[in-house]
Amino acid sequence: MAEDLNEELYKALIENKTALADQWLLMREKRPNSIYSVDADEKYEQLLRKQNALTTKTIASSLLEDKKEYHENQEQWVSIVAQSRADLGTPIYEVLEAVHRFRTVIMDFLDKYVAAQEEAISKQHILQWNHSIHSAMDFLIQEFSKKYYQITRERMKAQYDLIAELGAPVIPIGDTTAVVPLIGDIDTERAKRIMETVPAKCIEKQVNKICIDLSGVPMVDTMVAQQIYSIIQTLSLLGIQTALSGIRPEVAMTSVQLGIDLKGIDTFNTLQQALKKMGR
After folding, report:
1. In angstroms, what CA-CA distances link 150 with 155, 159, 160, 243?
2. Which residues pair with 216 in a beta bridge?
3. Does pTM top 0.70 for this prediction?
4. What domains, with CATH codes, occur in the chain?
5. Nearest CA-CA partner of 220 in 228, 211, 212, 210
6. Could you read off the pLDDT of 219-270 as tens digits, one per residue?
């Protein structure tokens, strides 16, 4: 008996998925640059309808005794919606608001469904349905949040790696010679990235001579000077001959004050001088 009632509610939800989507979409408000805005492009409304149909299917399948369909729908929904919202740059709070609004739509439908069949449905069934639907909605939110976080973290890491690549490019100018033009301020985090990436890139590109050009760095303080010296020492241990160009008077003064010995390192006022010395 209970399974039959669950099956009937499942079918009722599926049969009314279009009406449920209509009601949900009517709850939209105008908000700038949002897929959920009432004036969003038609293609986004069609996307929302398609994904909302899967939401209804997922919630409905949570009522079935056999949970296989529910788990498959839930995994599919999380993957599709999280990827879609990440691609569109939708803030997570907007997604959670939309899910909350659809929860109210589903619960309104349930209230009307129960009212229409009041004599045939016990309080126990009503409590069970409420529990199943709310649990399914809560689990969707939880799993969506995890997946969305995972996607955005992976993208942030990719951007971080790209910034690291662009922040200290090792530019080959010959078979075994390269230049590292440093441009802009160098803080602790950037200095750490340079330390991590430059030696590895030199090995990868089979470089044995390199010139680090500082002419684009507006200020070289104590920390920067120490980090550059550490990079040069690391490269030296790897058998890579290192030269410095763009050495301005204030840079030289900072190095002297820190007691950093640059006697064993070729230093030049300009990159052109360094390349000429390196035979380029």
Report:
1. 9, 14, 15, 42
2. 183
3. no
4. 2-165 (1.10.490.10), 171-277 (3.30.750.24)
5. 228
6. 767 777 778 888 888 898 999 988 888 877 776 676 677 666 666 678 888 8
